[in-house]
Amino acid sequence: MSEERFSLIVPKIKQQYIYNLLKKGKRLDNRKFDEMRPIKIKTGIIPNAEGSAEVHLGDTIVLTGVKISVTNPYPDQPDKGTLIVNSEFPPVASPDFEPGPPDENAIELARIIDRGLRKPEAIDFSSLCIIPGKKVYGVWVDIYVLNHNGNLVDAAGISTLAALLNTKYRKAEVNQQGEVVLKEELINLKVINYPIYLTFGKILDYILFDMNLEEEAMSQCKLTTIISGGGKICGLQKSGIGYFTPEELDYIIKKSLSMYQSVKDLILKNVNI
Amino acid sequence: MKREIVLPGSLLITGNNLKAGLYTFKEDSSIYAGLLGLFERDSIKDKGVVNIIPLKGKYYPKEGDNVIGIIVKTHLFSWLVDINSFVYAILPFANAVKAKGKKKVKKFELNLANYLSIGDVIYAKIVSFDRNSPPILSLKEKKGLGKVTSGFLLNISPAKIPRFIGKKLSMINMIREKLGIKIIVGRNGRIIAFTDDENKIEILKKIIEKIELESHTSGLTDRIKMFLESVKNV
Amino acid sequence: MSEFKRKDGRAYNEIRPLKAEVGILKNADGSAYFEIGNTKVLAAVFGPREYHPKHEASLQEGIVRARYHMTPFSVKERKAPTLSRREIEISKLIKEVFNTCIKRDLFPRTAIDVYIEVLNADGSTRVASINAVTLALVDAGIFLYDLVSAVSVGKVNGQLVVDLTGEEDQISEADMPIAMMPSKKRFVLLQLDGELTYEEFNSLLKMGMEAINKIYEFQRNCLKSKLEEYLKFYGQI
């Protein structure tokens, strides 16, 4: 960030007003503490991508594109497809974003999303093998934040899941020379586990779900939980300067587990597969 | 009054004695629009300045304007202030703090953060601004200026502020009276309402939304009055 | 010539369907989405705002800076997200287009930052970007001498055509992007990659200008209808 450009400063009188509201159990946009902003999902909007989804979470907009191409497998997983998650905060999204390579925040976001996909095997990676040890499909997930109004992780998570559900790639065959030939026939990407990313923040002693940008600027710290099918916690990330007490952690984890199904249903309802 | 929607490059009028305003330009003997806005053909007077009413745009600082600023940085002997414009304004220490009697503040003891810090809101007057230096603010020019420590901050396009105030303060005074609250208005598109009553703030937000959308229509004050009366009856 | 049909069924002088939306990104001072066929572009404008680094600012006027960028998924083979030499050149040209068309002397020492993301590329992305940026600048309330409208023309299989698709561009003998301030017929961008005779160049220029007038009309209607929506709903003009 350049010398004299400032990240969001919430005026002190506004902070005071928001604190007073919180004490009354209210938020500035009239949501409950554990209420998500309205979501809107558009899929298949990028013809050149194998899968794509644009997600609006309130005023936060995230666009994810999935590219699939034939590549070499990782040496330790010769019969599985590869996955690379990349995230960019392009300057269109906020007056505070500068052009340039991904900064620590964009890299953190990509790594959190990656965590919900890789180990829990959100994708059936074995189905992406073409020639074991030689050729597999590689999945590239590129996450673009188009408008930043807080809680990028959850929005990116929804957009990634929706884009993967929307992904179709060309069938591969191996010819007699042992070369990989791509056919016109399209295959749906096998998404077998649906990771849901839920981020909570702490302002004063209150735990809020799905904070907007102003709330984020006022919050001490955040905790993202990644819940996968079967009600398992498959990833956690605490970020920001601040701490959580054991009671707060317990509340967030329990809340996340209880919210998993409803949030997942909400996403699936909005994705037209 | 008939108003036309004009766009950048729209030919407004041709004539030799005409002058371009802030949002229009002259080429040969014709005046063209530079922004998306509304043009009142009937409003052209003998004086010959042809202008349009812009619908968007940042605040253009003017000497003498009262503005609502947010402190964004503390320098050694001044503060940098966001006034919702294309430049940051400067509030020098001497324009902010009244010297108490003859006791002078010793510079090496001075910590500006003790007076104003990042995020503080001020109501200030622009005492100077020109092309070569940023706007200079003062809190000492008149009563009522200074640090604002409570209230609810609202935003409106700077171009709509004149409508929010109304002719001879008609609109703002009516709103103050009907809602029974104190309101201060910054020319730079910021408004502070002094109340903790969330309902009143909701009403004020709706009024601002109405003014944003209808500011180019006539009879606006009456419609806002009707609106205020309708919510009062509920 | 009139019987000639292109792969997508268009006539030689026909542009692909247009779609646009103004003011879609709330954080930006102005923004627009512009679509021509399968080429989809997003533009955001920030400013005028303080110029950084300060020593590069101009005391006389504001300066437009531009960044044209293609998302990795916008093309068939995933593109690396870092700026390529091609993107840097296009950014420079777009910056120069808008430094020409904006009245900048009201805002000394400031920057007007123009950011473009190509979401899906199917030819003519730089001209689509210029059309999008124009809408975003008007949305931001920035002073323009005229709207800027742009189109690409070229020669494909010996045939002169307007608005090249990605596929046509790949096999074309010549490709010529044009941008204009249409009401005064001023050219602000002109490039040519390929060989043309003088006559071909003139025909293409004429075809380009006709197409630009259609795009100009589309942009005007798009901005006006946004405003008219308000007026219809909330009261008379």
Description:
The complex is a heterotrimer of chains A (273), B (234) and C (237). In chain A, 26% of the residues lie in helices and 33% in strands. Chain A has 273 residues and is α+β, with helices and mostly antiparallel strands. Chain A has one domain (38-270): 2-Layer Sandwich (Ribosomal Protein S5, domain 2), CATH 3.30.230. In chain A, the strands form 3 sheets. In chain A, strands 1, 2, 3, 4, 5 and 6 form a 6-stranded mixed sheet that branches. In chain A, strands 10-9-11-12 form a 4-stranded antiparallel sheet, with helices on both faces. In chain A, strands 7-8 form a two-stranded antiparallel ribbon. The N and C termini of chain A lie far apart (40 Å). With 234 residues, chain B is α+β, with helices and mostly antiparallel strands. In chain B, helix 3 (170-179) packs parallel to helix 5 (220-233) and helix 4 runs antiparallel to helix 5 (220-233). The two termini of chain B are 34 Å apart. The model of chain B has no long low-confidence stretch (mean pLDDT 86). Chain C has one domain (18-234): GHMP Kinase, N-terminal domain (Ribosomal Protein S5, domain 2), CATH 3.30.230. Chain C has helices at residues 85-101, 125-139, 166-171, 198-234; strands at residues 18-22, 30-36, 39-50, 63-70, 110-120, 149-156, 159-162, 174-181, 186-190, 193-194. In chain C, helix 1 crosses helix 2. Chains in contact: A-B, A-C, B-C. The B-C interface holds B 2-5, 7-9, 11, 22-23, 25, 32, 34-36, 38, 54-58, 60, 86-88, 131-132, 159, 210, 213-214, 216-217, 223 and C 29-30, 47-50, 59, 62, 103, 106-110, 138-147, 181, 183-184, 220, 223-224, 227-228, 230-231, 233-237.
